[in-house]
C-alpha cells in the first residue's frame, strides 16, 4: 500500500511540475522549427534539394515546394497542438513517431555527413550534424515522457472550438509561407539582409598571436615581449622566438561572392567599393525567372542611368540564355554571372532587385514589389527609397504572435463562455429540483 501511494505521489509530482516544462520544451522546439521554415520556404526547398542530390534522387520542383510547405505546416501544427493540448493522444503518437524516425536518421547524417547541416532550424540557427543528433536525443527523451503523461496534460478548448483552433494552427504557417513565396521572408536570416556590410562579410579575420623573444647574456636567458626587446649593444644575444595564439581567425561569412563581367572579369570589388548607389537585378536562373515584371526592371535601369547609378543583372545562366533574354525583352542593362547558390542566398525571389551603397545592402525587393521608378523624379539621396530600411525582428515577431494568438484567444473565450453557460444552467436546474 505504501509503495503504491509513493508511486502515485511521484506521478502526481511529475504530472504537476515536470509535464508543463516538457510540454513547453517539446512544443516550443516544434513550433519554432516549423515557423522558421514557413518564414523561408524557398530555403527549405534548397535544403531538400541538397538531400535529393546527396541520395541520388530526382524529384520534380513542384513536389519539393509542396514538401517544404507540408514540413513547415506539420512541424508548426504539432508544436502548437502540444502546447495547446489539442488532440492529445493523436498528437503524442505523431510527435513520438516523428522523433523516433528523425533521431536515427540524424545519427546517420552525423556519421556519413552527406550534407553539412540538417536545416532543421532553417537559416535561423545552423547546427552541425552531431549537434542535431544530440538535440534529437534530448527531444526523444522528452517526447517519451510527454507520451507517457499526455493524458495528464490540460487543454484550452472543447471539441468544437478545438477543431477551429486546429484549422487555424495549420493555416497560419501556410499563410506565412505564402507571403514569403510572393515577396521576401518577413525575417531575413541570410547575410544579404538590408543593413549587411558585404565588404566586412567577405573579409577573413586572420589569427592573432602574441610573441615572446628569448635573449641570452652572460650565460643567462631571459624572455622579452615585443615592446621590451633589448638593444644589441647591451650584450644580449638573440636565441629563439615563441608564439601563442591569442584569438583564432575566422573565415569570411560570405565566401563565394564573385561577380564576373563578360568582358572585364571580376568586378566584385568595384561594386562593393562604389560610393554611389548600385542596382543588382538578380535572377539565379533566367529560364525559370518570372517575366511579368520585366518592364519594371527596365524602368529601374532607365532611372539609374539617368542619375548615374550602376545597374547590372546577375544570373547563373549561360551566355546563350542571357542573349535570348536580352533580345526577347529588349533588356538594356548588362548581365554578369555569379554562383547559383549565392544568388538564391541574395534573394529568394526570381528575379529580385537589390540596392547597394558603399557595399551595404540598402533595400531588397521581390519582383512583385519593385517600385515604380518612372514616377520618381528625385535622386535616391533625396528619396526614402535610398535610405536603409530593415524590419525590426521584435516588431515582426510581435505582430506575427498577435495575429496567431488572436483567433485562438477568441476560440478559447467561446469555450470558456460555453462552460460558464452550462454551469449556470446546471446550477439553476439543481435549485429548481
Tell me about this structure:
This protein is α+β, with helices and mostly antiparallel strands and 433 residues long. It folds into three domains: 2-182, no CATH class; 206-247, no CATH class; 260-386, Glutaredoxin, CATH 3.40.30. It contains twelve helices and ten strands. The relative contact order is 0.10. The model is unreliable at 422-426 and 428-433 (pLDDT under 50).
Brief digest:
The chain is 52% helix and 14% strand. It has helices spanning 2-39, 41-54, 61-84, 88-112, 129-149, 159-182, 198-201, 268-272, 294-307, 319-329, 340-346, 393-432, and strands at 208-217, 220-225, 237-247, 260-261, 265-266, 277-283, 310-315, 335-337, 352-357, 360-366.
Shape: flat
Tally of DSSP helical segments = 12
Distance between the termini: 41 Å
The sequence of SSEs as H and E is HHHHHHHEEEEEHEHEHEHEEH
Radius of gyration: 30 Å
Major β-sheet profile: 5 strands, mixed
As residue ranges, the low-confidence spans are: 422-426, 428-433
How does the helix and strand content classify structurally? alpha+beta
Q: On the 0-100 scale, what is the average pLDDT? A: 88
- Major sheet strand order: 8-7-6-9-10
Estimated share of beta-strand residues: 5-15%
**Number of separate domains:** 3
Number of strands: 10
Q: What percent of the residues sit in helical stretches (DSSP H or I)?
A: 40-55%
Amino acid at each position: 500500500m505504501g509503495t503504491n501511494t509513493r508511486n502515485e505521489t511521484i506521478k502526481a509530482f511529475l504530472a504537476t511540475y515536470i509535464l508543463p516544462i516538457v510540454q513547453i520544451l517539446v512544443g516550443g522546439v516544434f513550433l519554432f522549427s516549423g515557423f522558421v521554415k514557413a518564414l523561408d520556404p524557398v530555403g527549405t526547398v534548397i535544403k531538400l534539394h541538397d538531400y535529393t542530390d546527396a541520395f541520388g534522387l530526382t524529384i520534380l520542383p513542384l513536389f519539393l515546394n509542396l514538401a517544404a510547405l507540408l514540413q513547415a505546416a506539420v512541424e508548426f501544427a504539432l508544436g502548437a497542438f502540444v502546447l495547446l493540448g489539442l488532440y492529445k493522444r493523436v498528437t503524442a503518437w505523431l510527435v513520438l513517431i516523428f522523433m523516433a524516425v528523425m533521431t536515427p536518421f540524424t545519427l546517420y547524417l552525423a556519421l556519413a555527413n552527406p550534407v553539412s547541416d540538417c536545416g532543421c532550424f532553417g537559416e535561423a540557427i545552423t547546427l552541425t550534424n552531431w549537434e542535431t543528433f544530440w538535440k534529437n536525443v534530448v527531444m526523444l527523451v522528452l517526447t517519451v515522457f510527454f507520451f507517457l503523461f499526455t493524458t495528464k496534460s490540460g487543454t484550452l478548448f472543447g471539441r468544437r472550438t478545438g477543431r477551429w483552433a486546429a484549422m487555424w494552427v495549420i493555416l497560419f504557417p501556410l499563410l506565412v509561407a505564402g507571403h514569403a513565396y510572393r515577396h521576401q521572408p518577413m525575417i531575413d536570416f541570410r547575410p544579404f539582409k538590408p543593413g549587411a556590410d558585404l565588404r566586412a562579410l567577405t573579409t577573413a579575420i586572420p589569427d592573432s598571436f602574441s610573441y615572446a623573444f628569448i635573449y641570452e647574456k652572460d650565460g643567462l636567458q631571459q624572455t622579452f615581449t615585443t615592446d621590451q626587446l633589448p638593444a644589441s649593444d647591451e650584450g644580449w644575444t638573440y636565441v629563439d622566438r615563441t608564439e601563442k595564439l591569442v584569438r583564432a581567425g575566422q573565415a569570411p561569412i560570405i565566401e563565394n561572392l564573385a561577380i564576373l563581367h563578360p568582358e572585364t572579369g571580376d568586378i566584385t570589388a568595384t561594386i562593393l567599393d562604389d560610393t554611389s548607389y548600385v542596382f543588382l537585378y538578380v535572377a539565379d536562373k533566367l529560364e525559370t525567372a518570372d517575366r511579368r515584371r520585366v518592364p519594371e526592371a527596365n524602368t529601374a535601369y532607365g532611372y539609374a542611368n539617368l542619375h548615374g547609378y550602376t545597374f547590372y543583372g546577375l544570373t547563373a545562366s549561360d551566355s546563350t540564355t542571357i542573349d535570348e533574354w536580352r533580345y526577347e525583352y529588349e533588356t538594356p542593362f548588362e548581365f554578369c554571372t555569379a554562383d547559383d547558390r549565392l544568388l538564391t542566398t541574395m534573394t529568394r525571389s526570381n528575379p529580385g532587385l537589390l540596392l547597394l551603397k558603399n557595399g551595404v545592402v540598402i533595400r531588397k525587393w521581390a519582383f512583385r514589389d519593385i517600385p515604380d521608378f518612372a514616377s520618381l523624379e528625385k535622386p535616391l539621396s533625396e528619396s526614402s527609397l535610398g535610405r536603409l530600411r530593415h524590419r525590426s525582428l521584435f516588431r515582426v515577431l510581435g505582430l506575427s504572435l498577435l495575429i496567431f494568438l488572436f483567433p485562438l484567444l477568441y476560440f478559447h473565450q467561446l469555450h470558456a463562455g460555453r462552460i460558464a453557460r452550462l454551469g449556470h444552467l446546471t446550477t439553476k436546474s439543481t435549485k429548481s429540483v
